[in-house]
Amino acid sequence: MFSSNIRRRLRLGALTVVIAAAALVAPTATTATAATGSTVVGVASGRCLDVVGNSTAAKTRVNIYDCNGQANQAWTFTAAGELRVYDGAMCLDVAGASTTSPADAQIYTCNGGANQKWRINADGSISGVQSGLCLDVSAAGTANSTLVGLWTCNNGGNQKWRTTLAADTQPPGVPGNPRVSDLVCDAVTFAWNASTDNVGVAFYDVYHDGQLMKSVSGSTLSTSLTVVGGVTWGLYVNARDAAGNVSQASATVPITPPQCQPDSQAPTAPTKLTGSAAGTTVTLNWTAATDNIGVRAYDVYRGGAKVGAVTGAATTPPATTFVDSGLAANTSYPYYVVARDAQANVSAPSATTTVTTGAACGASVCAVTQIATDTDIPWGLVTLPDGTILYTRRDAHDLVHLNPATGAKTTVGTVPGVDNTDGEGGLLGLAVSSAFSSDHWLYIMHTSPSDNRIVRIKLENDKLTTSTEQVLLSGLLRNKFHNGGRLRFGPDGKLYASTGDAQNGDNAQNKASLNGKVLRLDPDGSVPSDNPFGNAVWSYGHRNPQGLAFDSQGRLWEQEFGNAVMDETNLITKGGNYGWPACEGTSGTCGTAGYIAPKRTYPTADGSCSGIAIVRDVLYVACERGTRMYREVISGSDLTDVQAYFNGTYGRLRTVEPAPDGGLWLTTTNNGDKDSIPDNSNEKIFHVVLGE
Q1: 75, 217, 218, 272: which is deepest, by most CB within 10 A?
Q2: Which residues form the catalytic set?
Q3: In whole angstroms, how large is the CA radius of gyration of the chain?
Q4: Which residues contact 529 (CB under 8 A, 6 or more apart)?
Q5: Measured between alpha carbons, how far is residue 121 from residues 152, 166, 354, 526 in Å?
Q6: Element (H, E) at 484
Q7: Angle, CA of 196, 198 and 201, to the nearest 5°
Q8: pLDDT tens digits, residue range 566-585?
Q9: Cβ partners under 8 Å of residue 305, min gap 6
Q10: Handedness of CA 648, 650, 656, 658 (dihedral sign)
């Protein structure tokens, strides 16, 4: 059936090869006859996926050939996501476990490897779970014996297949009754009731507050976790099947482990506090305090009121400097600093130093004014053509019109169909049409009971006209965390959206999935003809991106949350792969060819940044866990002269947006951030005056 002189092999580029753990003895080739299974037929060729020469030997390639009912064309799709042939004796396999296109498809002894797991997609493509690449007929050939390999998914007819093999698209049910036992200072046992699935649960993924802690097999219903004494976490679990479908998350179980070493001894007072002023910005420095176990933070007081904090970690002491910005000119300010350990023992205050500001700003951040408060979490925020503000309230599902000059607020309406996730879903991103003054369109990204979606609704006479609602994009997977959610119109007139991986990293590398991506749409929701993959995907390999902003050159910058190591700022390129889940910041296999490195990374303790804004080619980054705003100068394609402002002054910062006067709008997210309960917050919205 197969002749070597008509074999068309893929031309091999640079491949990243992982050698199989052990070589297997090839079975003797046989001539197989008819067997049970289903055919997999190429749409473009009408020919069957076929094992070359009827061979059962390991590493035999696959090709397309006239359908003939023989065993080398009879495939079964297992609950583990394998494509088996020869009555289940051999598996379809990616040679060398390659994740880079082109790659060879072959048969191999079934071993449970990730390079033997496949997805049968609704669009007719078959993609590798490990690589995200599509099963592809070489050079779009249609002739008998044309080899089949893996290639970047491109929606071509040579990547489409007809088969009666069932694609598993049904996610498992929610794991029930999550609970903890044996809680000690550094460990806890976490257990749950089994989930159900139409095929079978393959894994359980255990998280705290959106961070993956560990994955266990589908037969495991409890596990021991390492925790940190005195730190409150929310534990939950997701079920995942072999096809990569992920359940919605279980309920959250909060834990606060006791301290491993009781400590009632306070640190010594910081010493040698000094301060200097540059315009209306004050910089403080002091000598470190000491403690019997370790100093964890310094709290900075101005005029007797706490204005900021400098924090460290269990293995990293806090810095001994603090910048206080946006002060009044020609004003004297008294400061002192106290030290704090991990068990909240507080030192005596340092000596007080008084610093007098200069006559003018002379700094990058000149003044900060609180313009509003809210009992819910302000998430998306835009400036309307008249200079007023419109913002979304994440958990309450309504929009508020704010006059920043007077502080007057008007609720303009509730967005229909919004649902919470007992986490970070809800009413999220907001954008306004470039022709808003005439067409009145608001663009909104939100969680629904079944998905995340992008809609547009008209705002007329200061009211949402919900009868005008149009769903532009639906079917984005949702979960407790990792929903993304930012919207931004680009200078090209297209709508860009950031989507999270829905707590399944495989989604980020699957270009047929819209999760873990930056998306690009026409204003009416259609897909632009110049998008790289024939769908809404603009870039991929993202975990939970939330910040989007364009610079003066029209380039798109993006901010995303890492898991537990690094957050990152990226410069987005068309069709670019940013590496998740193999790569987190610069950690993992980030040197792999084809992965685009971030322009800046942040330890998660200093980052967990959500929103970004660009003003005069300076990037401003609002950080939650890091409780600060970074200022970073865009120089070429690099971020330089990085400075941190408001370190602990206002707490967790969610959204930063350009203001029409050349300054910034800035919002907090301090209370109720992870529970989806409406109106249990106490948040603030600020206006920030910027210097040159």
Answers
A1: 75
A2: 482
A3: 28
A4: none
A5: 15, 10, 66, 21
A6: none
A7: 50
A8: 999 999 999 999 999 999 99
A9: none
A10: negative
Structure tokens at 342: 């991990």
- Per the document, the length of the chain is 692
DSSP string, 90-151: EEEEEGGG--SSSEEEEEEE----GGG-EEE-TTS-EEETTT-PEEEEGGG--STTBBEEEE
How many other C-beta atoms lie within 10 A of the C-beta of residue 186? Answer: 12
Query: Token pair 């050079």 is at which residue?
Result: 139
The angle at the Cα of 547, spanning 541 to 552, to the nearest 5 degrees, equals 105
The burial class, CB within 10 Å (0-12 / 13-18 / 19+), for 344 is exposed
Give just the sign of the alpha carbon dihedral 309, 623, 571, 489. negative
DSSP 286-348: EEPP--SS-EEEEEEEETTEEEEEEE--SSSPPPSEEEE-SPPTT-EEEEEEEEEETT--BPP
> Is the whole-model pTM more than 0.85?
no
Q: Which residues contact 637 (CB under 8 A, 6 or more apart)?
A: 571, 599
CA angle, 372 as apex, 369 and 376 as ends, to 5°? 135
As a whole number of angstroms, the distance between CA 216 and CA 38 comes to: 32
Give, in order, the Cα–Cα distances in Å from 111 to each of 24, 55, 58, 148, 633.
11, 19, 12, 21, 50
Distance CA 353, CA 663 (A): 31
**Distance, CA of 24 to CA of 22 (rounded, Å):** 6
Q: Domain 365-690: state its class.
A: mainly beta
| pLDDT digit string, tens, across residues 179-230 | 999 999 999 999 999 999 987 898 999 999 999 999 999 999 999 999 998 8
The residue type found at 452 is N
- Tens-digit pLDDT profile for residues 16-72: 322 222 222 233 333 334 457 899 999 999 999 999 999 999 999 999 999 999 999
The amino acid occupying position 108 is Y
Domains 4-163 and 365-690 share a fold: no
Whether the Cβ atoms of residue 247 and residue 175 lie closer than 8 Å to each other = yes
Look at the block and give the residue holding tokens 């964890």. Answer: 296
Average pLDDT over residues 423-447: 97
- Write out pLDDT tens, residues 467-478: 999 999 999 999
Instruction: Answer yes or no: are the C-beta atoms of 182 and 258 closer than 8 Å.
Output: no
Give the CATH number of domain 4-163; options: 2.30.29.30, 2.80.10.50, 3.40.190.10, 3.40.30.10.
Answer: 2.80.10.50
Q: Give the span between the Cα atoms of 561 and 76, in whole angstroms.
A: 39
What is the helix (H) or strand (E) element at residue 509, kind and residue range? helix 506-509
d(CA 536, CA 450): 20
Q: What angle do CA 278, 281, 286 make, to 5 degrees?
A: 90
Task: Say whether 53 sits in a helix, a strand or coil.
Answer: helix
For 663, the 3-state DSSP assignment is: coil
DSSP state of 554: S
Extract the tokens encoding 482.
């990792």
Task: Give domain limits for the chain.
Answer: 4-163, 176-255, 271-351, 365-690
Q: What residue has token string 């079964």?
A: 76
Please state which CATH class domain 271-351 belongs to.
mainly beta
The whole-angstrom separation of Cα 658 and Cα 620 is 9
DSSP-assigned letter for residue 681: -
Compute the distance between CA of residue 516 and CA of residue 538 in angstroms, rounded to an integer: 11
